[in-house]
Each structure stands twice: as structure tokens, then as C-alpha cells.
Design a protein that fits this description.
This protein is of the alpha+beta class and 197 residues long. It has six helices and five strands. Among the domains are: 49 residues, no CATH class; 61 residues, SH3 type barrels (Roll). Strand 3 and strand 4 form a beta hairpin.
Length: 197
């Protein structure tokens, strides 16, 4: 597209200029493979108008693939560092929540019923759901964390505390959980920035 814009701004025929650009692109060695696209496609070098003294040069297919693979791994590690990507902490036997389809703007992101993981293969999880097994990527699942509110006694007479004591203890528990969540979040943000630097 850039070659077409340049040809148009210079008042040249864009079809001829595009052909010249493609010839130049296909006869130039690529940085990740070390070979020209024409050589990789047809197994021989493209004949251009420029004289070439070393026509007998050949590029081994394995060496090209190795160099390409090394550059892909380098790019992956860079992208993972920028995105702060981490391995999933979900293991076999864990309870998870599965991402639910969005029906409207008020619907929950995850199905509220926890399911158990029966197998894990890299990022793919096999989850048991109502007797059937589902396969989902770990990015579409999140670990199920039980809330401690269900374990709190609901009747103040059973616990021996007044309503005020129960409310203050629930408030202090909520504050403690909030502080812990904030600390963990800040630690992750700091670790992410340190990895980027």
C-alpha cells in the first residue's frame, strides 16, 4: 500500500511501481530466515537485472528453519515480557469457573457453578460438567475461590455475639481481604514492570 501511495504522489503508474516493489521484496533476503522469499518458494534465486557473481550459493533448508525458529522464540519471549504473561496456576483436581457467553450487559462473565478439572495438557483443560467433559483453554477459566461468608454463623444467638460485634468482625474481615488483595495486585504490577525493564 505504501508503494502505491508513493507512486501516486509522484504521478507514476502504480501498477508498474508495484511490480518493481514486489521484485525487490522477493529478491531481498529476509532478516528472520536469511534467505529470499523467492528462494524459499522455488528453490533457486531470482534472476534480476543486477549481475550476480556468486550464483552457486545455496541455503540449507534446515539452517533456514533453525534461524526462523530462533527469531520466533525471541519475538515470543519479548511479547510475553511486555504482556506479563504467566503460566496458568490451575492444576488437575482444582475447581474452576468457566467463561459464560455475554447475553446482556448485566450478565456475569463466568458461570457461577464450579466445575472440576480432570485433565490438563499445556493450556488446554478438560473439565467435568454434569457428567460430560468439556475442553477449554485455561484463559477461559478462572480458579474458584470459596467465600468465607458461607462459613460465618447467620444467627447472632448461635454465635454468642451481638449484631454490632458481628458487623464489626465482618467489616474487619472485609478490610483484611481488601488489603491483602491490594498488596497482591501491587506486587504483581511491580513484578511486571521489573520484568519489562
Amino acid at each position: 500500500m505504501k508503494a502505491i501511495r508513493i507512486a501516486h504522489s509522484e504521478g507514476k503508474d502504480w501498477r508498474r511501481e508495484l511490480t518493481k516493489f514486489l521484485v525487490a521484496h522477493r529478491s531481498t533476503p529476509h532478516s528472520s530466515t536469511g534467505a529470499t522469499p523467492f528462494l524459499l518458494m522455488y528453490g533457486l534465486e531470482m534472476r534480476t537485472k543486477l549481475p550476480d557473481l556468486c550464483r552457486e550459493r545455496t541455503v540449507l533448508d534446515e539452517a533456514t528453519r533453525d534461524k526462523d525458529w530462533a527469531n520466533k522464540l525471541k519475538g515470543k519471549s519479548y511479547a510475553d515480557g511486555k504482556r506479563c504473561a504467566q503460566e496458568s496456576s490451575i492444576e488437575v483436581g482444582d475447581q474452576v469457573l468457566i467463561r459464560a457467553p455475554k447475553l446482556n450487559k448485566l450478565s456475569s462473565n463466568f458461570d457461577p457453578v464450579p466445575r472440576s478439572v480432570i485433565a490438563k495438557n499445556r493450556g488446554e483443560l478438560t473439565i467435568e460438567r454434569d457428567g460430560a467433559s468439556l475442553r477449554r483453554h485455561s484463559s477461559h477459566c478462572k480458579p474458584y475461590q470459596r467465600s468465607d461468608d458461607s462459613e460465618q454463623p447467620l444467627n447472632s444467638a448461635d454465635s454468642g455475639n451481638s449484631d454490632n460485634d458481628r458487623d464489626s468482625s465482618m467489616d474487619s474481615d472485609a478490610v483484611r481481604k481488601l488489603k491483602l488483595t491490594c498488596r497482591l495486585y501491587l506486587a504483581n504490577v511491580i513484578q511486571c514492570h521489573l520484568n519489562v525493564l
